[in-house]
Amino acid sequence: MTTLIGLAKGAGLAALFAATLWTPAWAWEPTKPVEIIVPAGAGGASDQMARVLQNVIGKHKLMKQPVIIQLKGGSSGGEGIMDAKMSAGDPNKILIAHSAIYTLPLATDLAFSWRDLTPVALIAMDEFILWVNSDTPYKTPQEYLAAVKAQPEAFKMGGTGSKREDHIITAAIEKAQNVKFTYIPYKSGGEISTQLVGKHIDSDVNNPSESVAQWRAGQVRTLCVFDDKRMPFKTKVTSDQSWGDIPTCKESGLDVQYLMLRGIFLPGGATADQIAFYVDLFKKIVATPEWREYVDTNALKETFLTGAAFRKFLEEDEKRHRELMTSAGFVAVK
Amino acid sequence: MDELRLLLNGFGVVLTWYNVMLMMIGIIIGVIVGVLPGLGGPNGVAILLPLTFSMEPTSAIILLSCIYWGALFGGAITSILFNIPGEAWSVATTFDGYPMAQQGRAGAALTSAFTGSFFGALSGVLLITFVAPIIANFALRFGPPEFFAVYLLTFCSFIGTGKEDKAKIVISICIGLALAAVGMDTISGQLRLTFGQNLLLRGFDFLVVVIGLFGIGEILVTMEEGLAFKGKNPDMDLKVVLKTWAQLPRYWLTLIRSAVVGCWLGVTPGGAIAASFMGYGLAKKFSRNPAGFGKGAIEGVIAPETAAHAAGTSALLPMLTLGIPGSGTAAVLLGGLMIWGLQPGPLLFVEHKDFVWGLIASMYLGNIAGLIVVLSTVPLFAAILRIPFSIIAPMILVACAVGAYTVHGTMFDVWIMLLFGIVGYFLKKLDFPLAPLVLALVLGDRAEDAFRQTMLGSRGALGVFWSNGLVGTITTLALIILVWPLVSQLVARWRGRPDAVGPGA
Amino acid sequence: MIVGLVFFALGVLVIADTIRLGAGWARDGPQAGYFPLRIGVLIAVCSIIVVVQAYRRKSDTRVFVEWSKLVPVGKILLPLILYIAAMQYVGLYVASTLFVGGLMRWLGRYSWTKVIIVPLIMSGIIFWLFEYQFAVPLPKGPLEQWFGY
Question: How many alpha carbons fall within 13 Å on the CB side of residue B261?
Fold first, then answer.
């Protein structure tokens, strides 16, 4: 611990020193290479997002210091978020958070709350889609769920990990439609997608980017998207469909909505100047053409929130997760 | 032969001076990251990924895939010279590679490792060139029961011939399994064996443990036995390459067996690590001289390297055709493909012919270039063994510490490495076998996940492991291999005393 | 034999945590603690076997490490521990330079010039490779900060 404090002190001194030398536009600027903590494994959605950020920052020279990506995906990202918590006071580290910041502390006895960190910005939201294999006869969620209802537990729903977003959605569907799946946890969305094509599972709730390849090849079919509005993307992805053509689950009679945050956090105890620097940085990033292209190809939901609005969002989102997880029985007995 | 025409076309795309230069740079960087413990193929590729965003996709993938080949080659170097696996898939290479180096046959070990790697890679590329679509569909047939059967087969092919005390083997496996269980349980989402310690959330990283057990442990053992490597003067002449090559045709069966195992495991994302262990285990089982294994048998070096490289190469196949990564490096490459605007998956072969065949052509050329580069460095690396122990030992320890740190960027891992170094020393002194521990640590949690996914799917019925031809065959094969030594022992005994009445007869 | 007892303790530790998780075979397959519990039990049982074996074999009184042999092992183990401890405070580069230099002098009796030059070159190479080429930060201490890293 003492080393960390020492480092932070050193960083502070160096910042003062730098400030007098270069007279930068900002009251504070990163003094060392900035580490992006990715609480997920190599090649996953969070990792890709981090690499796009790294690319955009480097290409448009948005920061003097280089960006380093640290993959800390142990324990469903618990390793990464705890690392961010332990780095309190270090403004040269940022965390790309996903919903594990709520689900992990609820499902396990992990001593963490997002309030331990400093929220910077919500930069996007992940959509979730209900997918089935194209060889099955189901064209709408209702047809599929009627089949599931007829044979409780006979249908296998694949998802990433246990007591996390995919599992929560599954539980929400079960509750809303009074059906029962057999939920099978896997390690990654890519793996699940292949399992669906290989008919080892009957459906999944992957993100668009995780299944787009199989969708375009006509191996899987979309049933509905778990959002309140259809996605805005009009470009044809398959021969005859765009992301925007997928109906929402609600309009198909399955009233379940779920979006997952992609938020940027600093470790705890960041100063106002530091937050201002990163807020400005991410404002610039989301305005670049590279970022727009990334959002389009991965069919992310464009969202940008900072400051009080972001905090309010976090409060509500956390409350919602607690409700969903409590009703699904995922909350650990403490 | 449509493939051949497309491939020739691909060669045309790849063979520009610029691309050949990128290839060489890629190979050299790859060898460096492969040699440095802790930095591996995934790191090397990830680090250079941002540099390639502005390049043309074909050039970019050539550079990055060559790093991958280089890392596959490079991983063997430290395993053989210092008993430190630079990469997870090189662990099995240490079993015979290091004893060879100690006997002054480092050059021969390196040459056979590299040649085996090359042969494996070549088999992988041939597979990709000619039967990609068929193989891709085969990979789709792998669900949880099939995966579990494969892991079972790996365990069974590797275990069962050990000469060590049975109780010690079991303890070794169990410790590996227990270590693998630390951290988040995928199936239930619960934290296991972390005892509320944040530092344990990550679980025990395989590489950190291995660097400790093998690297540090070995230095401590060497210290005890006097201040020098046991290595005699290493053969460090390029002639050793030719001499070793002259011997290799004798091991054609091992080469082919390992290549087949590797290709198969690479395609079904069992990975290069499982392939290297299975290749080694099978070579030992079917060798005419199994007693020589672990004491510097050349087959013990060829087998895992060929398998690992074949798996590493064919792991790119499911990535390209299905969009699923067969290995960590493939996962990072996959991310790269998407950033370049290429969508890996079934349509890639149709929509981006130039890119795909350029990549396949670069696999041939990249591996040939790689082989030339690494073979020419054999004398150089062998010469490292001539450096006096009191200089090289602390440097190896520094390399170990750097390696352990870079895996996850925490000091805690360096302490873990030290702890396992001491544990490794004691285990070695007490004749506990280390290999089963390592194998269990690598495959333990995956095997458990697969088993429990299967059980969730079948609702607790074990019959699922014989529910279709594929899984049934693998499971049965695994069990046969497990009891094989027992049976052959009985057969040998029965033949030895034909007049004696067997028990129960 | 002591090692056997340590393993036994480890086994018990594993058992204790897994019982908390639920180690049964639920209707749809094994629970989280199912395998670890069996592993824990196996470790404990086998360590008892090893201990018993060691006890029986006592007749051959083969000491597993002679004290005199522990000295050279300690010669490298203790500096290694110090090195890793120091790394946290002075950073990896300074610690590594001192460590390699120190051991070269102490074990190898090299001349001071070599002792100074070799480790410095080594640290330089590591620094160049990791900080510049691969952009992987290694632990740094006050000295590096003084230079502005």
Answer: 29
Say if B504 falls within a structural domain. no
Mean pLDDT by 10 residues, chain A (334 residues): 40 43 63 86 78 86 84 80 87 91 85 91 93 92 92 90 90 92 85 86 90 86 92 86 91 90 92 92 92 88 91 93 88 69
A74/B144 CB distance under 8 A: no
Q: What is the pLDDT of residues B381-393, one digit of tens each?
A: 777 777 777 787 8
B145-197 pLDDT, tens digit each: 888 887 887 777 766 555 566 677 777 788 888 887 777 676 666 676 666 66
pTM score over 0.80 = no
Evaluate whether A36 touches A69 at the Cβ level (below 8 Å).
yes
> What are the tens digits of pLDDT across the range C103-144?
888 877 788 888 888 888 888 888 887 777 666 677 777 777
Question: Vertex A303, ends A300 and A306: CA angle to 5°?
Answer: 140
> What are A176-195's pLDDT values in tens digits?
999 999 999 888 787 788 88
User: Which residues, in sequence order, are CB contacts of C131 under 8 Å at separation 6+?
Assistant: C137, C138, C149
Which A-chain residues 59-78 have CB contacts (< 8 A) with chain B?
A: 59, 69-70, 72, 74-76, 78
Which residues are CB-neighbours of B59 under 8 A, at least 6 positions away?
Answer: B18, B19, B22, B52
Residues 392-421 of B with CB under 8 A from C: 393-395, 397-398, 401-402, 405-406, 409, 411, 414-415, 418, 421
Three-class secondary structure of residue A288 per DSSP: coil
**Domain around A163:** 129-245
Helix (H, G, I), strand (E, B) or coil at B468: coil
- Kindly compute the dihedral angle of the four CA atoms of residues A143, A147, A148, A154, in this order, to the nearest 10 degrees: -150
Q: Is the residue at A140 inside a domain?
A: yes
- C22 at interface of A, judged by CB pairs closer than 8 A: no
Q: Based on the fold, state whether residues A295 and A229 are members of the same structural domain.
A: no
Q: Which two tokens stand for residue A130?
A: 């209900």
**A251 within a domain of the structure (yes/no):** no
Instruction: Flag if A14 and C142 touch (Cβ within 8 Å).
Output: no
DSSP state of B216: I
Concatenated DSSP letters of B352-372: -HHHHHHHHHHHHHHHHHHHH
Looking at the fold, whether A265 and A121 belong to one and the same domain comes out as: yes
In terms of domains, do A166 and A235 share one?
Answer: yes
Q: Is residue A27 part of a domain?
A: yes
Number of domains within chain A: 2
The minimal CB distance from C145 to the residues A10, A66, A182 is found for: A10
Rounded distance between C-alpha atoms, residue C17 and residue B193, angstroms: 6
Domain residue limits at B333: 2-495
A142 falls within a domain = yes
Q: Tokens 């992301």 belong to which residue?
A: A243
